[in-house]
Design brief:
InterPro entries: RGS, RGS_sf, RGS_subdom1/3, RGS_subdomain_2
Keywords: Signal transduction inhibitor
Structural class: mainly alpha
Largest sheet: none
Shape: elongated
Protein name: Regulator of G-protein signaling 13
Distance between the termini: 28 Å
CATH superfamily: Regulator of G-protein Signalling 4, domain 2
Pfam family, one: RGS
Length: 159
């Protein structure tokens, strides 16, 4: 999403004062019901990702989404290439977007990276999902960003 069309980040929000035209109050209400429902909606992951970016922890959702895409790779060659890239960015100690996982999960991935399967990041993805659900998600629901967006959508749906 380029900055000109971005409706989430503060700079752009101040310029446009708009939310996405297709975001509904029903969808936003689902976000508050559970983290799973937030992640299953159209705009939930996008808005949540923007929140995590403001919180300086967007590596979690970026990794989770990258794993969702990784699981769909059919070609062995592409899977090996993508697996090494994911390892280098998110798993390798001191990597630019290192995720918070335990050492045994990290070691298992390291062992399996030469012949990666579609499920080789599954445990790390589960851990990251749990971190987001337990730590960031409750803060997201209380955040100024979420509350303001909710009020905007409520007032536009009442018009």
């Amino acid at each position: 999403m380029n900055r000109r069309n971005c409706w989430i980040c503060k700079t752009c929000r101040d310029e446009s004062k708009r939310s996405p035209s297709n975001l509904t109050l029903e969808e936003m209400i689902q976000w508050a019901q559970s983290f799973e429902k937030l992640m299953a909606t159209k705009y939930g992951p996008v808005v949540y990702s923007a929140y995590l970016k403001m919180e300086h922890s967007d590596e979690n959702i970026k990794f989770w989404m990258a794993c969702e895409n990784y699981k769909k790779i059919a070609s062995r060659r592409s899977r090996i290439s993508k697996a090494k890239k994911l390892y280098k960015i998110y798993i390798q100690p001191q990597s630019p977007r290192e995720i918070n996982i335990d050492s045994s999960t990290r070691e298992n991935i390291c062992r399996n990276i030469q012949e990666p399967t579609q499920t080789c990041f599954e445990e790390a993805q589960r851990i990251v999902y749990m971190h987001m659900e337990r730590d960031s998600y409750p803060r997201f629901l209380k955040s100024e960003m979420y509350q303001k967006l909710l009020k905007t959508i409520q007032s536009s749906s009442n018009s």
